[in-house]
User: Fold these one by one.
Assistant:
Number 1:
Amino acid sequence: MPSSRRAALACAALLLSTAAYAQAQRRRVEAETQLKPQRVALADGRSFNLNLPEGFRLAVAAEGLKRVRFMSLAPDGRVFVTDMHDLTDNRKGVVYVLDQFDPARRKFLKVTPYMSKLRNPNSVAFYTDERGRDWFYLALTDSLVRYRYVRGADAPSGEPEVLATFPDYGLDYKYGGWHLTRTLAFGGGKLYVSVGSSCNACLEKEDVRATVIEMNPDGTGRRFYARGLRNAVGLRWVGDQLYATDMAADHLGKDKPADTMYALQAGTNYGWPFCYQSGPRVFADPEFNPRGRKFRCRGVPAALAAFDAHSAPLGLEHFGADWPSELSNSFLVALHGSTNKSIGRGYRVVRVPEAGGAPADFINGFLQAGKVYGRPADIFRYGPGFGFLLTDDRAGVIYYVYKR
């Protein structure tokens, strides 16, 4: 048999084995959690079912928003959420304050614009310094800024302090304008910022692309914490560990590479664009790293969790041992969904064991019979008892999910 034929057969067998592995793992985990439909009725007349584990319920905590994204808790207990308005590169973004949560109705009674006319605000964060001063951080496409935060105020105080600037190309792919979002996370007294790639797959000209950077809260002491992450939109510190979700490239077909979630290690390169993960293994990209000659993919850590190709993981949240068994010692990850809805990947919230392993559906139904009812974006523990908030940037809704 010609060597080319043997190589093709080996490749086909490998693809089959990784697909079978993923399917078997998913079936095993999903068998542990049965989902039940719940009717959702929105104020604009839309109505549909979402499916949740038995014993959990869902309520509409806020609605009538646009492309509502990531959440953060302010020092005064209010929830802040970003809204990027739409999918264009625009300056119509808003940061909202969610306040006066009614536990009986499971709804925010007050939703107030805090800032407006912003360029793609994806993430905000808060920090109290050693002098007891509160700071509000805002990540925009082109810059990271901070303001002195006044508790209870409905607008920022004073002029912004620019801590960093970022590549700013817009959405014209001809000029490399991919990945407009920046995400923030504080941990260990440091600030972490993710900056996505300028392209689907390429050799970057700017070092800051496809990285997570670390800096002091005042913007000094900047260094690269992790590289080779094509678009790590989701960041979350848990204890002394930083976790990230990452969206893989689109040039290898419908079934690979896997989208991923990592427990990040400082100083590590996660391989993009030279390497990719499929199933449990890491491979050399045939276009950018033929036969592994340009980059050693064996040194790239395998992901904590691998999701179906084109699932588009975004926000994530951790749930400790004190949570109900359906969530204890695990993460929930918002799978935003494939841009091409005919592929049908994502459009759900999945559970990932703390120690890693196959994801299992926790909420699904956002895509039904080719119709998109929503796209999950971020998850945030909140409220009395066992509950969390879930943003949907397609429907402009914030859900409150809770254990009955």
Number 2:
Amino acid sequence: MATTDEIIARTAPKHLIDHNLIDRDVESLCDGMVRYEKRPAKLRDGSVAEGIYNAWIVLNNPKQYNSYTTDMVKAVILAFRRASADREVNAVVFTGVGDKAFCTGGNTKEYAEYYAGNPQEYRQYMRLFNDMVSAILGCDKPVVSRVNGMRIGGGQEIGMACDFTIAQDLANFGQAGPKHGSAAIGGATDFLPLMIGCEQAMVSGTLCEPFSAHKAARLGIICDVVPALKIGGKFVANPTVINDRMLDEYGRIVHGEFKTGAAFKEGQAMIKEGEVDLSMLDQKVEELCAKLLDTFPECMTKSLEELRKPKLQAWNLNKENSRAWLALNMMNEARTGFRAFNEGTKETGREIDFVKLRQGLAKGTPWTEELIDSLMPGAKK
């Protein structure tokens, strides 16, 4: 009786059709700011599965916290298409360079300096953004969000489009919309109510307060969390977060909440003294990919398609009217918010004077360049 290897050698076709949209590396589309790597897939015992790989799609813009430019969005779309069509790929790992940020969303500098005040241009950009989210949701392979640092704003949205999330516990999660002139309608308002419930989705989507990886795990928005801080050669849990599973005096769960006052500052000092080591994160990602390898590939793809339906239904229902609104919003609040973030500093802050804006609008003041300039951080009040 022939072995499986002998059957493969005898029956595999000599020519396979290439289903990719382009025949060159995705790195060439964005000066290497998105990397596509095929890393050998490993079995549960750590040995390599010959000829099988995990595709790593890596956002490589660390100076701007891995925020995505227009060219990076194009590259991500094509990278997911490539991974989806690659017969050798077991799973996709979506991550960022470094240990500071997975992704903080769209590139605010590009938003402020090109798209602000140009709704027709931003509408075309949002077509690309929508296609990026859809490329993740439509990938034929399971997608793992490897959260190496902050997952904020649009970064949270593309992360939630993934099938699994494993995070290092110094990472923060959250939205930024109403604080910076937008609304979290690039996926967050679709995915959050499904994933964490309407009330917690409301808190995240409107107040824009970041929450810890431990709270993310408690809420069920990620499947696993591991320590990344090493002090004295040993891993310790994020010292700025309440890690004990406990209730406060009102009976509320506080596990995963940030500490306050002096305790928070002490935790920050510990982080500065220690070193960040993502080896446990990588180990957990490899373990998950190894589990995914031990399945029938077509049954896996069908399972993904079915389990993604709640996300897809909400996303497809809203993405086009969201795109139109976001484009028009570039004429006023987004135009103002992105400029403020881009032009502000640590000293002046990166948010406008919200009270002054509300006072002006209450009196019927129209949106003008003069009004926008007066609201910028550091402007004379």
